[in-house]
Structure formats: C-alpha cells, structure tokens
Write the structure tokens for this entry.
Amino acid sequence: MAGTGRPGVLIASRSMSHHFFQVNHPLRPLYRTLALLAGLFVLIFGVVGFFATQGTPLFEVGGQQALGLRTNLAFSYASIVAGVVIVLATLLGRNFAHIIYLWVGSVFLLAGTAMMLLMGKDETNFLNFTMATCVVSYLIGSVLATAGMYVKAKRA
C-alpha cells in the first residue's frame, strides 16, 4: 500500500481527512431540522422540569417528571443549557453546528451510558435517570451525532 513500504499497510494523509465527513450533503436541511427539533425538545424538557422541580433539592431522587421522563433540578438546569447550545448552534449554522452537534451528541451518548451504569442506587443516580431517560439520551445523541456528520458545508 502507499506510503509505508510494507504490503497491506495504508497511512491516511492529511489531504484525505476532509473526505471523512460529507460536505454539502443534499439532506443537510433535514439533518439541521432534526437537530433543531432535538434541541427544542431538550430545552422544553429542561424548562418544564425546572418548574416541576422548584423547591426541591438540586440532586433530589424522586418522582418528579417532565414530558414523561423523571428529572430533578440539576438535570433540568443541564437540559436547559444543552438545549440552548443546540438551538443556537442550529441558528448560527453550518460548520459551527457541525462541530457542536458532534460534541453534544457524544456527550448525550456518554451521559446515557454513564447514567445507565449509575442508576441502580439512589446515592449514585444523581440526575434521577430511569431506563427511559437513558433511551431518550441515546436517541438525542444519535440524532445529533448523525446531524453533525452531514451538516458540514463547503465555504464559498
């Protein structure tokens, strides 16, 4: 293979790195819309959760719910921040959104995994997650990560 002198070994060059993500994909508006809807869901969930958990301790583990998912005040604050970041990235656009979607999508996927591991005991389930919350976190993370792979635009 090219570049190493050893058969079967290929080293990717810097010039090939720009081919990793689709540029100016024809479905870019669809992916941006899906990311915006995911961001709006997270933002609305955070706001509803904020009002539903008013007056409770920050990391309360209990039955407070917002949009059918369990929450607490800390999770509501985090959801508001994440929702604002996603919506702003969508409004500001293109390559900035590409980076934000990839990072925030990864955070949602990692958070879903971490909370799935920690939700067995009340002492470790500090964001009041349930399995349904983990699944929703995976769905949002997958939508955002996929959008991040396809919304990159070539500068004119």
The first helix runs from residue 28 to 52. Confidence is low (pLDDT under 50) at residues 12-17. The beta strands are 65-66, 69-70. The chain has four helices and two strands.
